[in-house]
Amino acid sequence: MQIQKDKVVSMHYTLKDDNGTILDSSVGKQTLNYIHGHGNLIPGLEDELEGKVKEVKLNVTIPPEKAYGLKQEEMLIDLDRSSFENPENVQPGMQFQAQFDNGTQLLTVVGVTDDKVKLDGNHPLAGQTLHFDVEIMDVRDASAEEMNHGHVHGEGGHHH
Ligand code: ZN
After folding, report:
1. 150 CA distance to ligand 1 centroid (A)?
2. Separation of 55 CA from ligand 1 center, angstroms?
3. How are beta strands 130-141 and 116-120 bridged, if at all?
4. pLDDT digit string (tens) for 113-143?
5. 8 A C-beta contact, residue 118 and residue 77
6. CA of 156 to the centre of ligand 1 (A)
7. Where are the domains of the chain?
């Protein structure tokens, strides 16, 4: 059975950055299970998996445009330090949820001065070329219930 829209794919993956540093891996843990063709994975990875079958191993490089996008300058925001609840405690690396017109966004503190805080709303992997080692463990049809819910049930899947 080939990977195509509405198939449930189970796979193991290891994600590395351009320096070969491992950022994330499912190896030795639960497989990643997802419904193909619904934007559950980054577009570049779904493209590479399309048409592949069980037991295939892939080594793919995904440019930022087909992964988490390019870093956007306008996602860097300066705020008054006094606008934070505990201004004296604000430190680089801290994360805050912010409410925007199009939903909530996770902002990471990237700089602090006496009176200003610089926040970055880009995805942590924005601007990065990603390297995936993938092994396809299983491909099957999604059940009607899974299609309804938009996610995988069973082992490694969502609960109700
Ligand atoms: Zn469900």
Report:
1. 7
2. 27
3. unpaired
4. 999 999 999 988 999 999 999 999 999 999 9
5. yes
6. 12
7. 7-68+126-149, 73-120
3-state secondary structure of 78: strand
Coil, strand or helix at 119: strand
* Whole-Å CA distances, 60 to 12, 64, 121: 13, 13, 27
Which architecture does CATH list for 73-120? Answer: Beta Barrel (2.40)
Q: CATH topology of 7-68+126-149 equal to that of 73-120? A: no
Cβ atoms of residues 97 and 105 within 8 Å: yes
Architecture of domain 7-68+126-149: Roll (3.10)
Return d(Cα 158, Cα 156) in angstroms, integer: 7
Query: In a 3-state reduction of DSSP, which class is residue 18?
Result: coil
Tens of pLDDT along 19-33?
Answer: 999 999 999 999 999
Distance (angstroms) between ligand 1 centre and the Cα of 11 equals: 20
Centre of ligand 1 to C-alpha 159, Å, is 6
